[in-house]
Amino acid sequence: MRLGFFDDEAGWPNRRHEPAARALDDARRRIAAELAEADGTPDGSYDVDLDGALACRSLDDAANAVADVAGALAVAASPDAGPLGPAGLVVDQVAELTAAAARAAERAAAATVLAAVEADRRGLPGLDGRSGLKAWLRRRCALGTRDAGRYARLARFVHRHPLVGTALADGTLSTAHLGAIVDAVPADRHDLFDETWTWLADAARGLDPDQLATLMRTWRLHADQDRPPTDPASTNQLRTWVGPDGVGHLDATLDAEAWEIVLAALELHDRPDPTDALLPPRSRGSRLADQLLHMARAWLGSEPSAQEPTTETPDTPDASGGATPARPATPRPSATINAFLDVAALDPELLAQLGRADLLALRCELERFGPILPTTAQRLTCNGYLSRLLTARSVTLDMGFRTPTFTEAQRRAIVAEFPTCPCGCGTPASQCDIHHIEPYDPERRRGPTDHANGVPLCRRVHILTHEGVIRPRRLGPGTVVFLRC
Asked: Is the whole model's pTM more than 0.70, yes or no?
């Protein structure tokens, strides 16, 4: 990725070289000073020849020099403070070196954008037999499709707005700032952008790229004021699919109001997990996913809502001395969850005797989702979520769901005994699954559906229990410990 074809005779101004050269020279001097100070050698006498490499005009040599330094540090790096490598660079100086390398890389990226602008202006992609700037960048710069597309977008924007190119060339604007601007300016608002560029340029000097992106979203809202109102049906979309990894995916696009409502509902009961619990704390994304599942289950009536009583309130006398009728519970829709299972999928002991080929031949599917693990099917039957269970021949089986499913009275007794999941995560018992401590096995008369054999488990621990990672053991009333399998 050389700039040799942009010589002075071809019309490439010297001033285009100066910003990148100054940044590279600055990085060279800083690295040289750090190395010289560390090992006591005079400036320029260090082992790695950064002086010649970083001072050159070609971007590939500059990148190779930075890569050489990074590679040397990676080989000699240690988590303990002390000398690193023959140059004597200490850990505290690595941050300065990293910042210098990052600045050099940023100026190299800016030079790449400016070079792409000039190449596009001169029509080099067409002369090179390429149909567009993106394809030309992929070939000439050995870039991936995503990076080439990004550079092409930035270059076309700079070509259309020369003042932005000037700010990019003198270092006032970084490529990250430029990306935030390009993402926010629609194709029919370039004239308005030119009118407000002076103000945006002043604001960008004191903002990081994320803050500038927020400012540009505000600019976009004002720029779109004269547009007709957007139909929410065209904005609010939800896509669902099952990936090849067997994991369900949700991809939602929401307008501002819908986004705030959904996020407020998800964060209503979100609390960070304790750090001293049985399992490591979940990430925020994992907690919000669990909260979304809890909301869906509460809406379907699979578990009591945190905001509504599970039973009707008793009659209370009103001001006239009469009785005020109890308000009925809010009706909830019911859903049917069907599974297609071979009977062997519900027998852990039989599953343990099957080979890999026999396990793959078992049918174990949910109607909407598709294939699931037998342990997942066992957990769903433990919860009593499945309303119908079908064999591979679609013959309905009476699995006696009332027997393995805890009654409301038993659930209330268990919740009174265990207010939260006993693993220490703090999940309220009303949001937990009631699990059989001893697995339910009516044929062997083991694992009775009794409140003494039930324990509330959060979904995370419940999954790990049925996956065989941990196993709960009851020591006494209100006391459960977990053993690793």
From this structure: no
